[in-house]
User: What shape does this take?
Amino acid sequence: MADRSDAPPPGTGSPEQALAEVHRRFIERWSQMASSWGVPRSMAEVHALLFVEARPVSADEIMQRLGISRGNASMTVRTLEEWGIVRRESLPDERRDYFVAERDALALFATVMRVRKEREIDPLLALVSECRAAAAAVPAAGDGSAARAARDLDDRLADMDLFVRAIDAMACRYLSHDGSGLRTLAAEAGVER
Assistant: This one.
């Protein structure tokens, strides 16, 4: 995103300028945070822009406001659509497509967490299971040191398996498509809006 150090401080200027500054700050901080999670900066910027806007945004506006290429904007929007956190809309009497982000933050986070679970937790569960089966298959022949090491490894993997399955169970319980599971979790934890 282009640097806007010339922007007025919050609370100064017109209401439109103040809101534009809030948008800029959110987009900037969202992209910094997302990059620490391994999400490309431009993807986070596009998502943040679409999230803070109260209206559908065209690819041309995304390119102009974020200073990115048409190819980058197109590829990024397509990925966000695949994740299920951005959708394409058509406006009456318009030939081009517009884009809108999921507005419900809890539904958004539930979707992102489900995608991450499918890409990271599910393969980890399979790996731990495979490694435990392989460790259990180590024969007890010889001096038995390999069998002891295999049992020790299985003990450590059993703890890993317990942790990953607990995370998986929480994800399955609380990651409903509409965000209601996260609302339930928040209520159980005494967190209010």
Observations:
- The mean pLDDT is 86.
- Residues 38 and 59 are 24 Å apart (CA to CA).
- The longest strand covers residues 86-90.
- Residues 15-101 form a domain with the Arc Repressor Mutant, subunit A fold (CATH 1.10.10.10).
